[in-house]
Amino acid sequence: MTISDWADQNRRLSSEASAEPGQWRTSRAEYQRGIMEAVSDAATETVVIMSSSQVGKTEVVNNCVGYHIDQDPAPIMVVMPTERDAETWSKDRFSPMARDTPCLQDKIANPKSRDGNNKILHKRFPGGHLTIVGANAPSGLASRPIRLLLCDEVDRYPFSAGAEGDPVNLAKKRTVTFWNRKIVLVSTPTNKGASRIEAAFEESDQRRFWVPCPECGHEQILTWGQVKWDKDGNGGHRPETARYHCAECDAPWKDETRWAAISKGRWIADAPFNGTAGFHLNEIYSPWVRLEAMAKAFLSARAGGDETMKTFINTSLGETWMESGEAPDWQRLQGLKEDWSAGTVPAGGLFLTAGVDVQKDRIEVDVWAWGKGLQSWLIDHIVIDGGPGEQACWQKLTDLLGRTWAHASGTPMTIARLAIDTGYETAAVYAWARQVGFGQVAPIKGLEGFNRASPVMGPTFVDATIAGKRLRRGARLWTIATSTFKAETYRFLRLDPPEVTSTADGERFPTGFLHLPGWVDAEWLKQLTAEQLVTVKNKRGFAKLEWQKLRERNEALDCRVYARAAAWILGADRWSDARWEELAAQFVVADAKGTTSAGSPQLARKAQVRRVARSTYMG
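The line above is the sequence of Phage terminase large subunit family protein; the predicted structure tokens follow.
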């Protein structure tokens, strides 16, 4: 009896754990049969499932556990990303299955009994036991020998289980004493080059589910590129018309036709079998998902930017996300430079930020203007000679806070927020920031890794009294995920300008377009494109994404990242359209008659004499 046969005969789906409670039917999602048969196959040692959500992969894991408890007792371990996830799976998934599947009821002790055979994370049955652990608990992973190892959502596992190393490898060591061991790895993928499930799938025979066309019979892998929908007369999308088109004859499949075709599909391997069976699935195969819902999710993800699109790629298409870290060609940027007067702000710029990089013998500053849709313009590049050890150098930086740049409307603008790196001469940076105040200055510290949900965190107080009490007027530090802003900058640099840049209603550039002035030189462009995102392996053999320099100097890129962080701190990423329109209304460019009208917006305030209050703190 295979696992699928056992499930069809015995498995009962519980109402609190399934949208379709009652008798299990493998034919409901025919692709699951091949996966469960691979787990049952004695010649297969490892099964890898790289898939989207909503395809029933967790229920496959549940069937494997139930089958072995009933038909082939053995020591079983289920590994979840965290101990909390382990408890949730035990309570919400396993316990209802054990309660509602008749053949399992007598094999698992009553949870209300006091004999200790049915705990939340450890359950005994005749001939074996089930241990449920979190990947973040090294003691649980290394506790006992295991014959059947089931690892769910492996891409969400921590980098290391304490100091023991990779949790998947640690769990695999528990199976070495069994000649008939079985290892099942399941997950939706994450970032390309750093995905455990992708690496495991590439070492497998890479099976994909081929589906015959109901019209022409042509077998094909279902891909997102073949999903199409109509538009209305105004160009608006109509996701309710979404359907799948045959790659051969272009015949449209409605949802019911697609589901019927999938029931006749089969698994075909792309690589030789070496003891590891790999399976890849996306949400198009799911009998519980309509293409209308996928189309709506895609349109929402595309409008939401990288973070939401990454979620769609990972959880709906079951594919890894490629970070946009390839360095753009600086020579291409040379040809995209635009002409506007040096030191002036074009009409689209609505507020200014500055990024400051502190070096041993100089301080470099780039001033950027920002507009709606996070379009940006490089306004000024300033090099202050002398270094952080000279007071005159800091005085020039202070003077820069009161300097003005003329907007195209004639309104003078000052820097709304200046972000300065604290990585070099940290104490000197804090001292200067305390002196000028934190209303206009944000000391920052860069952290490795991607965090699009919250790429800027803080501020945290880094000054305290001897007793450890935070000082209200002490230094405040912001931490930023530099990798996120570097990838975003390179993505913006790859955008193409519109074919016609001047229309009756103004210039139309894509969201995030990065405008470069004609006065910027080749050296600055080379610094802006000085890094590359590469995949490297650490000493334990685990891959991760890392930014590496292509050339020594990269100050332009660093200053851009800091200025972008300053815009985030101001809240520009979270402003509503009404907020942007309110800000834009305060800048009126001269009309054909030469008349102008300009307000004094908060973020572009007029020049004023700076009042510096000297604190007695620090003497």
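Note on the example: The longest strand covers residues 376-385. The chain has a mean pLDDT of 84.
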